[in-house]
Write a structure and sequence with these properties.
The protein is mainly β. The chain is built from two helices and 13 strands, in the order αβββββαββββββββ. The protein has a twelve-stranded antiparallel barrel.
Length: about 270
């Protein structure tokens, strides 16, 4: 049961951009020589974009994540969204409103990111699992579309996990975010997340999550907070489906929506210890 639960714990949607906090990440790495691909979509109603002044119903189509572990200590990851589509319901005067497209709907590729995760402590030998994770978010989404901020962001996180009446994970870290409203300006923000996972059947798991960031709060870099509740069903040993309801509750964002994802884990190379 614990082995299955740890495997399922890898299966996180890693959706973040101008509007969404970092997704919570497990401290446990994929097994050496294994890879994992996750693919899905999400939808948010009344999603605001403070930099461009747009608000509407957002579809994120092709939320993609790929991870590979070539040792028991290092995992490489990439993630992003293939297409963002916003059905605009309202246009407000904002910093970028004069250069934002007049198209409705407006669409663009999502920002992609690159991550490296290092294992530090194993829960079963140390009593608590600990990893560190470093990443860079690339500015793939243009500000002219109204959906992007054209800034490169950097993140570092400590990832803790512990089994106690289920599986608990806590993420804490720092982000260095570019400010699109001020030339040569950046802001250091605190990122956080907590998740509880518990089995509710032989192949079904309940997840409860909350995450966000604090620090600077302005048009280009806002406070973010959200909560997620969802289920994961393990279809086979290597394949599962996840469905989450999402509620954002920061002062700049009260959008509501859902995420659905399929995750497949597979062996890619034989690792000799």
């Amino acid at each position: 049961m614990k082995k299955t639960l740890l495997l399922l714990w890898f299966l996180h949607i890693t959706l973040f951009s101008q509007q969404h906090p970092l997704a919570i990440e497990t401290a446990t790495l994929l097994e050496p020589g294994h890879a994992q691909i996750e693919f899905g979509s999400s939808h948010f109603r009344q999603q605001p974009f403070p930099l461009s002044g747009l608000e509407g119903n957002l579809w994120k189509i092709g939320n993609l994540r790929f991870g590979i572990s070539l040792s028991g200590f290092v995992e490489l990851q990439t993630e992003g969204t293939l297409l963002n589509v916003l059905d605009i319901l309202e246009r407000k005067s904002a910093f970028n409103s004069k250069i934002t497209t007049s198209n409705n709907p407006t669409a663009d590729i999502g920002d992609f990111s690159l991550w490296t995760k290092f294992s530090v402590l194993n829960e079963y030998s140390s009593g608590i699992g600990l990893s560190v994770r470093f990443g860079v978010q690339l500015p793939n989404t243009s500000n002219e579309s109204g959906l992007g901020i054209d800034e490169m962001n950097f993140f570092s996180s400590l990832l803790f996990q512990k089994h106690f009446a289920g599986l608990w994970t806590i993420n804490t870290g720092l982000g260095v975010l570019g400010d699109p409203t001020r030339i040569s300006s950046q802001h250091d923000v605190f990122t956080y997340g907590i998740e509880y996972c518990v089995p509710v059947g032989e192949v079904t798991y309940l997840y409860i999550q909350s995450s966000g960031r604090r620090g600077h709060n302005g048009d280009g870099v806002q406070h973010l907070s959200n909560a997620k509740v969802g289920f994961e069903r393990n279809i086979t040993h290597d394949f599962s489906i996840k469905l989450f309801g999402v509620s954002n509750f920061s002062s700049s964002d009260n959008a509501k929506g859902f995420e659905i994802n399929a995750v497949y884990t597979f062996h890619v190379v034989e690792i000799k210890e």
